[in-house]
Amino acid sequence: MNAVLDLFAGPGGWSEGLRRLGLRDVGIETDAAACATRTAAGHTTIRADVAAYPTAPLCGKVTALIASPPCQTWSAAGHRAGEDDRSLCHQALDDLARGNDTRTALRAQCADPRSLLVAEPLRYALDLTPEWVALEEVPAVEPLFAQTARILRGVGYSVWTGILNAADYGVPQTRRRAFLLASRVRTATPPEPTHAKDPGPETLFGPATEPWVTMADALGWGATNRPTPTVTAGGGKSGGAEPFPTRARQALLAAQQQGTWVLRHSNRTNATIRRTDEPAATLHFGRASNYVAWQREGATAPESVRITPAEAATLQTFRTGYPFQGTKTKQFEQIGNAVPPLLAAAALRPLLPAALEVAA
User: Fold this and answer.
1) What is the pLDDT of residues 33-83, one digit of tens each?
2) Cα 282 vs. chain centroid, distance in angstroms?
3) N or C: fewer beta carbons within 10 Å in the chain?
């Protein structure tokens, strides 16, 4: 194996980004539904626990490393147990840099053992010395990425860390995520934005960036060549489609070209609400999957209909018909946790100047 290794590979967000660049990966993932999705999509997968998987059999066989550690303990949509465990995570990184693996002891002290998974990419990077490394997480993890960057610089890597907004790279979603990009063979730099909220006029130095992609643009709503929309109410928990549309979804389909609906991102009073002529906010699912819904704009008693997995996947820039497996809840979970493939491809381009981009 002379491979790109993808830790916590999920359903294949990074994998689909790599495909856009003409590359493939081998993913390590423990969730059964995500593994089934990867298999159905044609991505090579090892079903295993990243934290328990030994690195010795991989030495000399991995040229690049990708990782998006689980974000539940750090995310604003979760319980933020990671904040209580932050000092233990910093200690784990320092100990690994000194060649002392204290993960087992530190994990036992964590409020949520998943917090320590943020240290796994450094363990693999130090043991396997790949040519390049790309990491992604929620913004709360940025200080830990900064510490990881210092350690990687100490062993010969050029490293960039920072926050990227997915909308700046053509994703119809203002999803902000921390990234770490490192290389042993070239200078690590952030990807150049391709889109902007206010692109500005074309100049003598070249064209302005493209405007942000809206939900209506991505879903084909209001376009003359828009595809036939789904006519189910989103299906039941088992994943099957409901045979007849709800009255709310019928109204949604009829109103698409008028742009009279918005996307509400939770059931809370202060929920983020975006019009269809804007990008979505960050799509959070898991426990809140039932509350991401289309809603009639300005109505006193708004009629609403839950977003479908196919619509959510499109807003994450997965290719049409991507074969998400599992129950409807598991599909939403996979979609919300994945790196948008278009953002993944953009982040990797500076590490792969010779990569040949292929049709998505």
Assistant:
1) 999 999 999 999 999 999 999 999 999 999 999 999 987 776 665 556 668
2) 10
3) N
Sheet of 261-264: strand order equals 273-275, 261-264, 293-296, 304-306
Q: What is the CATH number of the domain that holds 73?
A: 3.40.50.150
Q: Is residue 330 part of a domain?
A: yes
pTM, entire model: 0.88
Query: Is 266 found in the same domain as 117?
Result: no
In a domain? residue 356: no
Which of 248, 323, 317 lies closest to 283, judged by CA?
A: 317
Contact criterion met (CB below 8 Å) for 195 and 213: yes
147 and 22 co-located in one domain:
yes
Q: Do 144 and 90 contact (CB within 8 A), yes or no?
A: yes
**Residue 102 and residue 31 share a domain:** yes
Neighbours of 155 (CB within 10 A): 12
Q: Cα dihedral angle (219, 307, 230, 14), rounded to 10 degrees? A: 60
Distance CA 55, CA 77 (A): 32
CA–CA distance, 284 with 261 (Å, rounded to integer): 19
pLDDT in tens, 214-264: 999 999 886 433 333 443 444 444 444 544 456 666 666 666 555 578 998
Q: How far apart are CA 312 and CA 174, in angstroms?
A: 14
Q: Answer whether residue 304 is part of any domain.
A: yes
Report the DSSP beta bridge partners of residue 211.
196
